Amino acid sequence: MDHARQVFTVDLLERYATKGRGVITAMAAGNDVIVLGTSKGWVIRHDFGVGDSYDIDLCAGRPGEQSIHRVFVDPGGSHCIATVVGAGGAETYYTHAKWSKPRVLGRLKGLVVNAVAWNRQQITEASTKEVVLGTDNGQLYEIAVDEKDKREKYIKFIYELKELPEAFMGLQMETASLGSGTRYYVMAVTPTRLYSFTGIGLLETVFASYLERAVRFMELPGEVPNSELHFFIKQRRATHFAWLSGAGIYHGGLNFGSQHSNPNGDNFVENKALLDYSKLSEGSEVVKPTSMAVSEFHFLLLIGNKVKVVNRISEHIIEDLHFDLTSESASRGIIGLCSDATAGLFYAYDQNSVFQVSVNDEGRDMWKVYLDMKEYAASLANCRDPFQRDQVYLVQADAAFSSRDFQRAASFYAKINYILSFEEVTLKFISVGEQDALRTFLLHRLDNLTKEDKCQITMISTWATELYLDKINRLLLEEDSAVENHGVEYQSIIQEFCAFLSDSKDVLDEATTMKLLESYGRVEELVYFASLKEQHEIVIHHYIQQGETKKALEVLQKPAVPIDLQYKFAPDLIALDAYETVESWMGTKNLNPRKLIPAMMRYSSEPHAKNETHEVIKYLEFCVHRLHNEDPGIHNLLLSLYAKQEDDSALLRFLQCKFGKGRENGPDFFYDPKYALRLCLKEKRMRACVHIYSMMSMHEEAVALALQVDPELAMAEADKVEDDEDLRKKLWLMVAKHVIEQEKGTKRENIRKAIAFLKETDGLLKIEDILPFFPDFALIDDFKEAICSSLEDYNKQIEELKQEMNDATHGADNIRNDINALAQRYAVIDKDEDCGVCRRKILNVGGDYRISRGYTSVGPIAPFYVFPCGHAFHSECLIAHVTRCTTESQAEHILDLQKQLTLLGDGARKDLNGSMFEDSVSSTTNADKLRSQLDDAVAGECPFCGELMIREISLPFILADESREVNSWTIKPTNNLLNLRSISLPS
Fold first, then answer.
1. What is the DSSP code string of 286-339?
2. Are residues 155 and 170 in contact, defined by beta-carbon separation less than 8 angstroms?
3. Tens digit of pLDDT for each residue in 849-872?
4. Could you give the 3-state DSSP secondary structure of residue 551?
């Protein structure tokens, strides 16, 4: 232990603390408050927190000499209980920090209170809550006092020792809040016993339960001048206790956790120990302490006039504390010790003076204490810096190394960062030939390195890789005597090595590691590492060499694998397992089937069994039908594979399928028809050739080829032509000629079949069309029925033509009559009738209208139009309205007609003045024609009732060319309205 810096120091706090009120007989402290009891019955209170002090006379009015026996202060320093002993018996008083007068606790009259247990968890400045008092006759009382009531709330008797009625000398209490209520832990000591009480509910109920069950206690022999019980409080919770007993200092840990929450479980003490007084004596004579205080790691024991500081863990004396006593106090010496758990201070007192014992970082050397005791976990928990931890690890490592537990030693050596170099540790293991321990050391060292040590991490990882490979090789070279154990260990090291490669993939140098694995012949691990480093090409190549198609395809399916590898390995994979490869292709997105054509052609060139599914055809069908692939290369390849099959049904279905349907202006097929025709001719797929000819509009070739295969097919092809009657007839004649020439029956049967064939053409062919195909020596009798039938048809057609001519003549007469009647039609209008456009009188004779171009006036009246619906318009107004509302082309036509009429009008006037009469008549005739055309253009229907008005419904009110004009009238808001000044108008 380092004695250069003392853990505990003593300072004189106050020399004459009683102020002449007698000598000190008792003392207590809490929250920087000390309370002294004197031999004359005074209680003196010093509050160092606020620098205040006062004294209270508890013996006022009592006869005889009175002395304070005990004083007790709560941890907050607000509540005080004092017992006065005198000639008139014992009295117990309660006083509060805010009171100037004490309150006697009458129920306790005559009882000497030796111990008090405060409820630290629930006590407040205003209320004591439950307080347990222990008396010298072995009784326990519960009291509660509220400061505002100026008196106790209650005093209850709760327990009494009956088996061995001894005085209670010390009391401590802890509480814990549970779901079912408050749990109380009470510990009490007498000169020879330590009692433990616990239970849930009211404090009175807890002690009442011990009437029916035995109380737990620890009994120790021997006598001591003053038995004491102390709890050490850390963060408002007791962590360990100490009992000053006759046999020694009985101490241990306290655990108030849930595992000790059994209502009847009184055992909340752990790691119990007894410090024998013989360890404290310098000679053969055993000296017992007269008082005690407890810190986190030490006992302060008052022996004579000095305090021995004993380490609670090692039980060694570390310091002796001496006090500066006055001459009058030297005879009696130090009377006692007390502690202030809230402030973390200790006090010693003699008859006149109070000494303060301060703690200076008492845990600074505890790591050494635990280390000497080989309690390494506790030692590490108390280390303050990395150097201290290194020393603990070094001791552990050296101990394990000495006992030849090299694996454990390696794990501890790896944790040392400062006091032992990396090289020293590695040489230690190399010197004893422990490769496995060295590997363990390297692995643990890797765990302790930071990301900044990249170079060191890479070097150590590479070394560990080589050690793993060496270990694997050594296991392979071992003899077969331990084959079973060897197999288990071998598999274990392989798994461990693979896990190491996975963890270290980002720090290992790829090229170096690959060379190491290759040099040791570890192919599987090489492939595994390559997959970790995303060297997919190496992995796939290995699986293909091993014939493991599924594994290779699984690698290719990973998102990180480039799609180009699919195309690169496609030929090898489809050759190994076509089914799995094609299934993988169909499950892969963004695959370009065109780039797989070389692999598919290689597969297709190999022979296959008749009943075997052609996997390439399956994939191509998937591309064409499911993926809607439009690549001509894919369609051509599929067509070529269909053409090579014995059954041409699939080929025909493929040719008949319209792959571009649903697309506007799209093709019906994507294969090359010329290539398809050439291929089908080569493979002798005639039906397919017929279809292709027909698709290419080569109907004559299609029919000619179909006649070689099946006349029915030829008929169907001939019937497909619908828009060219001559071509259709020509095709049917080809079929008819073939049918007639190929018939092998009797002449009469052939003629009957030919006649039946005519019926299939739906009247397209007549008997006279096929007669040239019969032999010249055929008898006319054989065609009698057909010829008669044909003549009857012609007769019917002639009659129908006559009827149509009669109907046409009758219609022409009707039209002629309508035209004559039309010339006599007239309309009556009112003299006040208005023009539908200008709203002026139609029959205006004022002469204020300009005569429209192409029209002549009728006397003084301007030309006008009247419609059957009743609307009337001036000709000028009607022409202007129609020109404005009709289409641009129609308007130009009307203007052009007007222009021509104007020119003809001028010419006619010139002729009348001196030209030939015939030319004038001709000009007038042309003007009538133009005027008639103009009438048709502008007056074909009423502009208000006809189509012109209907079309105007869909037009906007404001046309596009008028938008600029409309925008110019828009009133735009201004942002400066608030800034405008009002201008007063002149009066």
1. ----SEEEE-SSEEEEEETTEEEEEETTT--EEEEEE----HHHHTT---EEEE
2. no
3. 444 544 555 556 788 899 888 899
4. helix
pTM of the predicted protein model: 0.58
Strand partners, 238: 233
Helix (H) or strand (E) holding 637: helix 632-643
DSSP at 127: B
The mean pLDDT value for 674-699 works out to 86
Secondary structure of residue 235 in the 3-state scheme: coil
Domain locations in the chain as residue ranges: 17-165, 779-825, 864-961
Picking from 320, 193, 188, the residue whose alpha carbon sits closest to that of residue 247 is: 193
SS (H, E, C) 671-686: CCHHHHHHHHHHCCCH
DSSP secondary structure letter of residue 623: I
What DSSP line would sit under 474-541, residue for residue?
HHHHS-GGGHHHHHHHHHHHHHHHHHHHHHHTTTS-HHHHHHHHHHTT-HHHHHHHHHHTT-HHHHHH
Q: CATH fold of 17-165, please?
A: Neuraminidase (2.120.10)
Q: How far is CA 444 from CA 393, 480, 865, in A?
A: 13, 32, 113
Helix/strand/coil for 554: helix
Instruction: Give the tens place of pLDDT for each residue, 634-683.
Output: 999 999 998 888 888 888 888 888 776 656 566 778 888 899 889 888 88
Element at 755 (helix H, strand E): helix 747-760
Residue that is written with structure tokens 């419904």 in the block: 953
**Torsion over CA: 534, 537, 542, 547 (sign):** positive
Whether residue 137 contacts residue 190, with contact meaning beta carbons closer than 8 Å, is answered with no
Mean pLDDT along residues 933-952: 87
> d(Cα 808, Cα 708) in Å, to the nearest integer?
50
